[in-house]
Amino acid sequence: MLDTSIPLDDITPFEGKEFISDEDAYNYYNAYAKKIGFGIRRDTLEKSKKASGEILSRTFVCNKAGRKVPREYESGIIINRRPETRINCDVKMKIRLTSSKMWKVTKFIAEHVHALTSPDKVAHHYSHKQRHRSKTCRSFIDSLHEEGMKPSTINRVVNVFFKGEDDEQVTTQQIIDHIRTTRHNNIGTECLTIVRHFQDRRESDPDFYFAMEVDHLGTMRSVFWADGRARASYLSFGDVVVFDTTYKTNHLSLPFAPFTGVNHHRQSVLFGCALLADEQEGTFVWLFSQWLKCMHGIAPKAIITDQDAQMRKAINEVLPNTRHRFCSWHIRKHIAEQQVKLMSKYGDEMPTYFNSWYYARNISKCEELWKVMKEKFGIEEDEDSWLTRMYNLREHWVDAYLKDCFWAGMTTSQRSESINAFFDGFVNANTNLVEFVGQYDKAVATRRGSESHEDFMTLNTVPVMSFSSPLEAQVGRAYTRVMLKMFQKELGDVMSLNYEETSKEELKVLYSVGKYSEERKNWEDVTYEKNGELKVACTCKFWETEGVLCKHILYILWLNQITSIPDKYIMHRWKIDARYRYFGFVDAMKSRPNEESTERESIIRLWALRGNFNEAFDMAAGSNDLLSKLEQLIKNFITEAGKEVRGKIVQTRDSQVGSEVDSNTHVIVLKDGEEITVRDPLQPAKPKGRPRNSTRIKGGFEESEEQKEVKQRKCGHCQQLGHYRTGCQLLKKQMG
Predict the structure, then answer these.
(1) How does pLDDT run across 382-408, given as a tens digit for each residue?
(2) What's the number of CA atoms in the CB half-sphere (13 Å) around residue 530?
(3) CA–CA separation, 712 vs 163, rounded Å?
(4) Can you say whether the dihedral through the CA atoms of 210, 215, 221, 222 is positive or negative?
(5) What is the dihedral of CA 146, 150, 155, 160, to 10 degrees?
(6) Inter-residue contact 434 to 146 (CB < 8 Å)
(7) 268: three-class secondary structure by DSSP
(8) Domain residue spans in the chain?
(9) Is the alpha carbon torsion for 531, 534, 540, 546 positive or negative?
(10) pTM higher than 0.70, yes or no?
(11) In this structure, what DSSP letter does residue 244 have?
(12) Checking DSSP bridges between strand 508-515 and strand 524-531, what pairing results, if any?
């Protein structure tokens, strides 16, 4: 752009002056206008009548040139309009393309019919607001937006970054307009961009997996993806999975469905995620099938979801051997909502009996209390009855029926919901699909940074022992910091317990253990058996559900002077090296050897070898000698065996493309040469199961859109836009 510090006489246009391009002419005239004190805009142009349609001339005018044609309105109705800026100013500069392909000024008028703008305000003219339209600034804004910053924050950063170049400031509205334009330009090509993004991810991450469901017209319905780190995490921590679909944060309101678990630090870990077309059984069947393929056909031992009938049917079909638990928080909320109805139908005593049944300590007691409640209140075997329906589903939500399964300390979908809350800092309801996928990667990277930090702290700190117990020292050497604290909590409660010996055999003793202050009927039964190897069990089922020995068992071990916990009672998934040892994966294979194939065996060996290599690398990282040995071993292996090429898996859903294909449809060639045809979703999915009063952090762009909607107010009296009934001039006039 021309330097406005040049003297006025040197930059004043004149007829006959030539420019290399029409853009150079515009910039020259704009610099002159800023020096004088007015703004400009592009006006008419003349094109060649030939097929090329080449531009032959252009006219640049003062921004106050011309006048808007007023509309005709009904008599007496006043419409609020923007202030008028055009007052028929004749100032202009016209240029024409010459035979030598230069642009020559053919007409120049310099006299204005209005007062000029003072130097301190001239920069507010639209033509002089150039910074936010520059390529450098737009690229900078896009980068900050991709990091999840709000427009107001981007505004401050941009102005600080460009501070000192000139006096021009980028406004928040200019940033919002740029983001909105970029999003609008992406409409119709989002699926194409997503697939290409996933293909690029596979180049850097060969274990990256994605699948897309399309209908018979090629319209995208659902998409699922998981990177190599998520798949590796599943093999270590995928015994219990939380699945939730209540989060909708994209401009099409597609339900966001993450598969979440808990790692050895008791942190939430992602096993992949999806954007779904709807929440019907068929969609869930497709998703669970793709997820199972992604995870080498290994189903989780347990899954936690909300109480959704369509989801339950899909889990029964695709994951028949997986224990399915309803989120206890949603169950308790549902029960609280039904309490009034139960009391009105069965009487005020019903909640007491219901709670006794619900909190029964074992299955036999639960069934006994159900019979008592059924007879007392005359509960009929009616499928339309809420009580009967919930009783038939008791294995999914009543604690007594769930104590025989490991749940990794989870009883609710809170893990998934906390992941949702975490994503609020990166996306909002206006985020398009392309942005969502990119922001998902950034959010996951931030999440994994927390896990890496906890790994570092565990490996580089010495655990603090509280009780000087050999059991505590043994666990401290094996478990992560957070799991050691959990064990110490149980160990700290040991001294508050008492016991009674209820039965004794030669090698087996049954104890009743509980607190002094508790009633004996609430004490737990601990079985202690030492026949070659030590065996212990407690009716509280803390070990079975949490993976940590309970205080009742620890008390009996202390009573019998046991100084070492058997390895089978130190769960591998809570150990420091759990990520590098795929115990859950191997256990799943052992449980069904008849289903094993040669291909799956090779996959097991591959992932196990990768885990061993990662462990070896971590062990050698602190020693130059060990690193040299490891490097030499790898070089020798490469020399002897050569480089092996791993096959790549590309998962897509077969699609049949009909004749009604519009301009938003794209044919995509995958890396193996296969072609798929996809187009963007046409309309938002119908929401289901989302709480009406649910809230979510709103981004600055989203808030600006809401403010924009407020401006489109409509009068309830005259039905005109621009004002409400309270400000209607026609109504005031009629009322006198």
Answers:
(1) 766 888 888 999 999 999 999 989 998
(2) 9
(3) 36
(4) negative
(5) -70
(6) no
(7) strand
(8) 1-127, 129-186, 191-327+412-451, 329-401, 470-579, 708-734
(9) negative
(10) no
(11) -
(12) antiparallel
